[in-house]
Amino acid sequence: MDLIILGAPGSGKGTQGALLSTRLGIPKISTGDLLRAAVKDGTRLGTEAQGYMEKGLLVPDQIILGLIEEVLGSAEAAQGVIMDGFPRTEAQAEAVDKLLAAQQRQVDKVLLIDVPEEELVQRMVRRAEIEGRSDDTPDTIRKRQGVYQQQTAPLIAFYDRRNLVARVDGKGTVEEIAERVHGAVR
Ligand code: B4P
User: Fold this and answer.
1) pLDDT per residue over 172-186, tens digit each?
2) pTM for the complete prediction?
3) How far is the CA of 162 from the centre of ligand 1 (A)?
């Protein structure tokens, strides 16, 4: 099964993706985690991506498309994958379709985690205090919400046209939301 978790920054994609991965036995792969690891290791990918991430901007498609190709071609993802944080643009969504189709696979479901904007900002401010991620400053948080609305939210209509979107209420405790997410894929 190939699943996409879609949601604004702070909606809990990473948290819910990890829980669902354990429950379904399907690996979760996050482009955000891969990019942060590349920055930490000082690789070429990391050096190219760092400036965009710190500004709250999307890393350009010409950089990300190669990463997505690598992820979906990996042995880890061969039996299905939970995509966390990608695709984020229409070009990325088309690349995902093409790469899966080459393996006689397709996107089976898109889980849209829906959380009101005020709560998103509160969660990320809280995370900034705990984890100190360099893109969790108030200005960058606002910037990332705007970028999501402009560049990623249009994917909801893209997948709605194929009847793939399951909307999940993302308010409540992590456990409550996990039950809803699990219910949406059964
Ligand atoms: P990501 O790592 O994907 O970061 P994000 O969208 O900002 O999501 P976040 O990590 O906040 O996720 P979550 O919803 O899990 O990307 C970071 C950057 O990398 C991007 O800005 C971009 O520059 C670049 N990038 C990554 N992928 C890209 C791509 N495909 N194309 C281009 N650029 C790309 O956050 C959840 C938070 O809320 C957690 O702190 C959690 O503890 C908390 N939380 C979860 N559930 C909760 C609940 N029920 N109640 C309270 N708090 C909760």
Assistant:
1) 999 999 999 999 998
2) 0.93
3) 25
